[in-house]
Amino acid sequence: MSTFPTDVISDILRRLSVKTLVRFKCVSKPWGSLIDDSDFAEPHLHHSFKTNNNVRLVLDTRAEDDDKAYSVDFDSLGNLEQLRRPFRTEVTGFCSRIFGSCNGLLAVYHQEAGIALWNPSTRKFHYLRTLICGDVIKRDYHSLGFGYDVIGNDYKVVKMMASGIVMVYSLKANSRRRIKDCPYDIFCSRTQDGAYVNGSLHWVGGEKDQYVGDRLIFALDLGVEEYHEVAECDISFRNFHYKNVGVLGGCLCVFREYANEYDEYHIILCVMKEYGAKESWTEILYLSQENSRTCVYHTRAIAYSKSGDRILLDDAGINGPAWYNLEKKTGKGFSIPGTPPCFSAITYVDSLVPVNGS
């Protein structure tokens, strides 16, 4: 093996899954050192993004009596694996939920135990310091977000309180701090976690002290930690509201709901194909009250299918995900043998990115 240059070996290894790489660490000490090197994790991650390989779907049951999550290959929905969650429900009596995915790391929230960063590929956890400050009232509702600070080369967790107080945790510094208060009204629910696109976390919100809310999209830039409003899509009707934002095909997307003059509700999914360009908003899914029965609650976009003709939609674990066929304009739920009947889903890429910031 010593006859092969290190860069050639590295180029071969970065094409493999993390599961295979963990086994190959035993081949030799040089291979083990190479795979464990944090400098190897980045090209391995970039290769997975470039080829769209090693993408998996984690199934989050949120059941109070289930300490496991489940993972399958996204393309085939096969190769089921059971994963131990960072928080054990039998100890606390509360279930946890996944609120973010970035570069192979998942962010997990637990009502009592706090927040953990989790790499399901390496099975590693990192438990965060409590994201509270002295001015936060005990029952202040909040929304969460997780993403990557490109400027600081750092992963950050954001906790945004309904009162406007915002706390940020830095993985690199392993510390938390309060930043500038959010200038928008915040709508806090488990379907309103921040969507990470273009170095910023995005939420649905409203103008401060306005009666009509959820009419705008705002973002927090994780690099400079400044807020900005995102240009809205063209709206030919005013009786509408945004339901939530998400990420689809690497682009910002938003579900919006409106009622016509007959009080019939309609749901539309729009994608911003060029970030920041208002004219790039494109409507890709439309559900009227008559044809939305299958997917009426599925208002979180997960991903396109590999062929691009379907979108995987999620309903926050109420009934389970569903595929929506863009050409036929029909939705259909599905089940995966060996998993609970109801679960929420989120994608992640197989990754060696460390959870401790090193």
Structural description of this entry:
There is one protein chain. With 358 residues, the protein is mainly beta. It contains five helices and 25 strands. The mean pLDDT is 83.
Percentage of residues in DSSP E strands: 35-45%
Largest sheet: 5 strands, antiparallel
Shape annotation: globular
The N- and C-terminal alpha carbons lie at a distance of 29 Å
Q: What is the share of helical residues?
A: 10-25%
Number of helices: 5
- Structural class by secondary-structure content: mainly beta
Question: What keywords describe this structure?
Answer:
four-stranded antiparallel beta sheet, 358 residues, 41% strand, mainly beta, single chain, five-stranded antiparallel beta sheet
Brief synopsis:
With 358 residues, the chain is mainly β. 11% of the residues lie in helices and 41% in strands.
Per-chain topology:
Elements: H1 6-13, H2 18-24, H3 29-36, H4 38-51, E1 55-60, E2 68-73, E3 81-84, H5 89-92, E4 96-102, E5 105-110, E6 114-119, E7 124-127, E8 142-149, E9 154-161, E10 166-170, E11 175-179, E12 184-186, E13 195-197, E14 200-207, E15 216-221, E16 227-230, E17 240-248, E18 251-259, E19 265-272, E20 281-287, E21 300-304, E22 310-314, E23 322-325, E24 330-333, E25 344-349
Antiparallel strand pairs: 1-2, 1-25, 2-3, 4-5, 5-6, 6-7, 8-9, 9-10, 10-11, 12-14, 13-14, 14-15, 15-16, 17-18, 18-19, 19-20, 21-22, 22-23, 23-24
